[in-house]
């Protein structure tokens, strides 16, 4: 049953534990251990992409049933253990509280509201979801995803909350030395999530500051990391890493959106840029409620291959050295030899099957490896064919400025590493095909 937030103000949503955890499983601080896997340095070398349809024991997968019951769960376990860390359990209850609602926002064409999501003990972080939706329409499809510096950067609306947690320096209005956001940043990055443009395209959009779930810095017991058991020595090599926490935060936003009477629960698209593009792909792979997955310029650790053939692309060793907290310690062990990784990013895309995945890029952003991302989509195609799509991906790398809107979609534009209103036009065009 759907309940009107306007009518009751506060909504408590009870959700069941995901299939990876038994009923009544502990919350995020005590994830269930994964099966034992060999240490990274003992794994065999595979120069090319490992076949997504071959099990660890060599068994070949030929049917959708075996994919869903055997190989797909195995790949999820492998990605947890060797790359992103353990997938935290879903909380037993998510409580949503409307902080404000403005029905005359966005040039009078939409409603803007912010919702506080509580999903654990009082000391746990809260997620603040900024939602823009068209006025006077039935439930609509909705884009959802994390943003970098706070909801207040996306609109000048004075009621939008300014984050109180740590924010990276360099974002508008962030105080030097304290890393605290201020109201000076209101509306200064509105082009990255152009709320009115999205609403005028007929879609809702919901976004939250990634740092409210887990601030983007290593070595500090804060955010959801602080809910993990303290380690006597080094933390487990498969401890939940930051990108996984951000993806988990996307799932908490989805928990709310599927109860929202203004949102079509079956037409949700997750989107993110750069490191949050990595997040969007992981969130889509680990939550079947998400109907379309859009990792924008996600690069290494996202839709870019670890076994890269592009000398201009970011390598695994560099990303795990500079950003050690994004991935678990096991993934850092592959920096000198990526051939030992028992999967590549095509398998993460394949986990999303048969749902559409759109990889978007920019010509000048070779660091994110645009051609390598097309190789990843092509290598995921055999899994999509199990679902009856004979041509899930374009036959060749599309030209700059041309949207290949297959189920495994691809787009590359001129320009640099950024998320712009023109990118959102591509996102909505793709969604027009797969969500409308």
From TrEMBL:
GO-annotated molecular function: carboxylic ester hydrolase activity
Residue ranges occupied by any 4-O-methyl-glucuronoyl methylesterase-like domain in the UniProt entry: 239-388
Q: Kind of enzyme, top EC level?
A: hydrolase
Instruction: Provide this UniProt record's keywords sorted from A to Z.
Output: Hydrolase, Serine esterase, Signal
The domain of life for this entry's organism is: Bacteria
- In this record, what's one Pfam family? GCE_fung
Q: What EC number(s) does this enzyme carry?
A: 3.1.1.-
Spell out the InterPro entries in the cross-references.
AB_hydrolase_fold, GCE-like_dom
Where is the signal peptide, in residue numbers?
A: 1-22
Give the protein name, as stated in the record. Answer: 4-O-methyl-glucuronoyl methylesterase
| Species of the source | Frigoriglobus tundricola
- Lineage in the entry? Bacteria, Pseudomonadati, Planctomycetota, Planctomycetia, Gemmatales
């Amino acid at each position: 049953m759907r309940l009107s937030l306007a009518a009751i103000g506060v909504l408590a949503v009870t959700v069941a534990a995901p299939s990876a955890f038994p009923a009544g499983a502990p919350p995020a601080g005590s994830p269930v251990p994964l099966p034992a896997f060999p240490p990274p340095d003992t794994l065999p070398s595979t120069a090319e992409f490992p076949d997504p349809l071959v099990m660890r024991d060599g068994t070949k997968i030929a049917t959708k049933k075996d994919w869903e019951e055997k190989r797909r769960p195995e790949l999820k376990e492998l990605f947890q253990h060797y790359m992103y860390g353990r997938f935290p359990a879903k909380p037993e209850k998510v409580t949503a509280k409307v902080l404000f609602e403005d029905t005359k926002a966005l040039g009078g064409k939409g409603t803007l509201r912010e919702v506080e999501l509580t999903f654990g003990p009082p000391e746990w972080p809260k997620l603040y979801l900024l939602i823009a939706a068209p006025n006077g329409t039935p439930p609509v499809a909705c884009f959802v995803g994390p943003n970098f510096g706070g909801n207040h950067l996306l609109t000048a609306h004075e009621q939008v909350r300014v984050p109180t947690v740590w924010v990276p320096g360099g974002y508008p209005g962030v105080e030097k030395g304290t890393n605290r956001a201020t109201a000076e940043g209101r509306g200064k990055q509105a082009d990255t999530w152009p709320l009115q443009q999205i609403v005028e395209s007929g879609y809702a959009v919901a976004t939250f500051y990634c740092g409210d779930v887990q601030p983007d810095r290593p070595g500090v017991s804060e955010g959801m990391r602080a809910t993990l058991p303290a380690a006597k020595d080094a933390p487990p090599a498969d401890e939940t890493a930051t990108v996984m926490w951000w993806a988990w935060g996307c799932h908490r936003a989805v928990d709310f959106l599927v109860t929202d009477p203004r949102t079509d629960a079956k037409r949700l698209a997750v989107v993110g840029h750069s490191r949050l593009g990595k997040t969007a792909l992981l969130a889509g792979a680990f939550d079947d409620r998400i109907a379309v997955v859009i990792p924008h310029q996600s690069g290494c650790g996202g839709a870019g291959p670890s076994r890269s053939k592009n000398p201009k692309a970011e390598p695994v060793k560099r990303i795990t050295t500079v950003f050690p907290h994004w991935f678990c310690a096991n993934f850092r062990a592959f920096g000198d030899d990526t051939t030992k990784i028992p999967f590549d990013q095509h398998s993460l895309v394949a986990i999303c099957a048969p749902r559409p995945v759109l990889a978007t890029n920019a010509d000048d952003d070779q660091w994110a490896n645009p051609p390598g991302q097309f190789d990843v989509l092509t290598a995921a195609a055999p899994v999509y064919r199990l679902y009856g799509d004979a041509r899930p991906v374009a036959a060749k790398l599309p030209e700059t400025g041309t949207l290949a809107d297959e189920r495994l979609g691809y787009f590359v534009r001129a320009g640099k590493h950024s998320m712009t209103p023109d990118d959102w036009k591509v996102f909505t065009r793709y969604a027009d095909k797969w969500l409308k």
